[in-house]
Amino acid sequence: MNSTLLVNIARFILLLAAQVLLFNNMNFLGYINPYPYILFIILYPVNGNKTGLLIASFILGIIMDMFSNSGGVHAAACLLLANYRPYIFKFSFGLSYEYQTVKLNDVLTPERFSFILIAVVIHHVTLFLLEVFRLNFIWEIFLKTIFSTLFTIIICITIIYLIKPNKR
Fold first, then answer.
1. Distance CA 165, CA 154 (A)
2. Contacts with 86 (C-beta within 8 Å, 6 or more apart), sequence order
3. For residues 12 and 132, is the Cβ–Cβ distance under 8 A?
4. Does the pLDDT at position 105 exceed 80?
5. Which residues pair with 32 in a beta bridge?
6. Which of 28, 52, 64, 113 could tie 32 with a disulfide, CB 3.0–4.6 Å?
7. How do residues 4-53 score in pLDDT, each as one tens digit?
8. How many whole angstroms separate alpha carbon 54 and alpha carbon 44?
9. Are 12 and 60 in contact (CB under 8 A)?
């Protein structure tokens, strides 16, 4: 079995377990819900199988929906993020993405930060819009998106630096 595949399987299981056991129990002031499980989609290899990413994203989202009892909103948000991921790469990295020289586990640069920010915003806007599904609550959707995005980005960057391989 390929080592990249094993790393992705381990990342999938660990992020999902951390989300279900730890982060689903966090709800600060009703607006801050961290969702670092999307780090699996963000850190998926650039040259990885696109169909595999879509299938894994759907499975990730549907498992989250089962644990959250949320009726498919996580699956839809994960699929949308996985589908638009190449366009976010192209927007954030430009020509570097074309030659597939992108590594998100390296030092945080403005390009990497913009990629993570855009990916988290797309996921959260989709998630909270589908969760509420009423534009009467647009202000609450906006607040939840902003605060949850900030908190999720902080957690994601922390996790990236914790799992980053040391270069000696």
1. 19
2. 50, 97
3. no
4. no
5. 28
6. 28
7. 888 889 999 999 999 999 888 887 777 788 999 999 999 898 888 899 99
8. 11
9. yes
